[in-house]
Design brief:
This protein has one helix and no strands. About 30% of the residues lie in helices and about 0% in strands. The protein is mostly helical. The protein starts with a helix and ends in a 60-residue tail after the last helix. About 0% of the residues are buried.
């Protein structure tokens, strides 16, 4: 019984030690020893202008009318003429 506990303790220490060494290796390997400075961006001054900026919106979707109307005659018969065009505000 005592021998089994001692063996489990030794195995646990070996596993913990190997995990610690691996973590230390990964930590030091992840940090570069030197880094190059970031390249500078040139700044050019311009003349101030005032004007409209066009806004373009592109997208995919469905257009749905706010209201739909069904036109029917009040008397029986056929509709001969409609005095508006499709899409016109009535």
């Amino acid at each position: 019984m005592m021998r089994k506990r001692l063996l489990m303790l030794v195995v646990a220490l070996i596993v913990a030690g190997s995990i610690g060494l691996e973590a230390r290796h990964v930590t030091y390997a992840a940090k570069p020893s030197h880094t190059a400075p970031a390249p500078t961006v040139p700044v050019i001054a311009g003349i101030v202008q005032s004007g409209d900026v066009p806004i373009y919106l592109r997208g995919v979707g469905t257009v749905i009318a706010y209201n739909n109307v069904v036109v029917r005659s009040q008397i029986t018969g056929q509709i001969i003429k409609i005095a508006f065009t499709e899409g016109q505000t009535v």
